[in-house]
């Protein structure tokens, strides 16, 4: 009887110990941090718009600094329906806009399995034209950089980014400041004179813009992207769509699509983004 009682006590002791170990292991599994592996290429921005990520996707709270450059070469093809224009179609017209940007951000919320990463940042932008925006009456060209064809812009932004899968990222945010003013430089049909001719009013350029996009990592160092910039309430409602196809077309050559009330245009662009901090691990 004493032996049976001893075996019973031993059995219940072992069983209780096993249950205690299971109970302590379950919360550990549930509370395990969601792992987000850094990429071998920078995903801190698409073309002009930022993402919430630092450098190549370092999923840690902290600052980030990027330098971004783009060159809008010219219009590949365009079409308009304005009453006052002779030519309704345009081919291979030069734009010649240089775009330089310093983009600093702070990652506030790291990405988890269910929560997107969230960052707030500041953009300082300098642009100049090596070919001034044509006027309606006297189109011309010039290669001299002066006060008339240089601009400085500044804006703050908030952005959310989330991995849908290991290779696919969605992105969206809001910008407040001069960021959307740049869009009006990309076509002579969005110049002040052209808008006055079209609407009879002085153009209004909003200081707020929404942007969204996606990144698909086709291979380790081959990101493909898409972004749209939508100024809120601006005259002729322009929208700029940039396709990040540099890894396919080589030389970081991108295709942009500009649409506005009365027309649309396809633009050719070169784009280079450099993540200064944190450094991208090759």
Could you describe the 3D structure shown?
15% of the residues lie in helices and 45% in strands. The protein is mostly beta strands. It starts with a helix and ends in a 5-residue tail after the last strand. It has a ten-stranded antiparallel barrel with strand order 1-2-3-4-5-6-7-8-9-10.
Strand order of the largest sheet: 1-2-3-4-5-6-7-8-9-10
- Portion in beta strands: over 45%
Low-confidence stretches: 1-33, 138-147
* Overall body shape: elongated
Main pleated-sheet profile? 10 strands, antiparallel, barrel
Order of helices and strands: HEEEEEHEEEHEE
Radius of gyration over alpha carbons? 26 Å
Structural class from helices and strands? mainly beta
Mean pLDDT: 83
How far is the N terminus from the C terminus?
71 Å
Please count the beta strands (DSSP E, at least 2 residues each): 10
Q: Can you give me a brief rundown of this structure?
A:
This protein has 282 residues and is mainly β.
Which structural traits does this protein have?
ten-stranded antiparallel beta barrel, disordered N terminus, 282 residues
Helices and strands, with pairings:
Layout: H1 2-30, E1 62-80, E2 89-109, E3 117-129, E4 150-163, E5 168-177, H2 192-199, E6 208-219, E7 222-231, E8 239-244, H3 246-249, E9 253-260, E10 263-277
Antiparallel strand pairs: 1-2, 1-10, 2-3, 3-4, 4-5, 5-6, 6-7, 7-8, 8-9, 9-10
């Amino acid at each position: 009887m004493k032996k049976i009682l001893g075996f019973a006590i031993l059995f219940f002791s072992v069983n209780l110990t096993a249950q205690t170990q299971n109970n302590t292991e379950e919360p550990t599994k549930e509370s395990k941090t969601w792992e987000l592996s850094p990429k071998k290429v920078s995903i801190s921005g698409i073309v002009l718009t930022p993402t919430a990520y630092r450098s190549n996707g370092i999923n840690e709270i902290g600052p980030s600094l990027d330098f971004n450059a783009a060159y809008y070469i010219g219009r590949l093809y365009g079409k308009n329906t304005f009453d006052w224009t002779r030519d309704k179609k345009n081919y291979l017209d030069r734009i010649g806009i240089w775009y330089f940007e310093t983009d600093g951000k702070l990652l506030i919320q790291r990405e988890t399995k269910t929560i997107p990463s969230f960052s707030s940042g500041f953009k300082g932008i300098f642009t100049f034209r090596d070919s001034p925006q044509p006027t309606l009456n006297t189109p011309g060209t010039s290669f001299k950089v002066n006060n008339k064809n240089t601009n400085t812009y500044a804006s703050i932004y908030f952005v959310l980014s989330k991995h849908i899968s290991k290779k696919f990222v969605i992105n969206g945010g809001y910008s407040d400041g001069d960021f959307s003013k740049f869009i009006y430089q990309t076509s002579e049909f969005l110049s002040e004179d052209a808008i006055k001719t079209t609407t009879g009013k002085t153009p209004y350029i909003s200081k707020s813009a929404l942007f969204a996009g996606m990144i698909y990592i086709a291979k380790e160092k081959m990101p493909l992207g898409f972004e749209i910039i939508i100024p809120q309430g601006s005259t002729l409602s322009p929208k700029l769509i940039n396709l990040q196809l540099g890894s396919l077309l080589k030389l970081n050559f991108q295709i942009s699509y500009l649409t506005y009330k009365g027309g649309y245009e396809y633009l050719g662009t070169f784009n280079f983004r450099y993540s200064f901090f944190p450094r991208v691990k090759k």
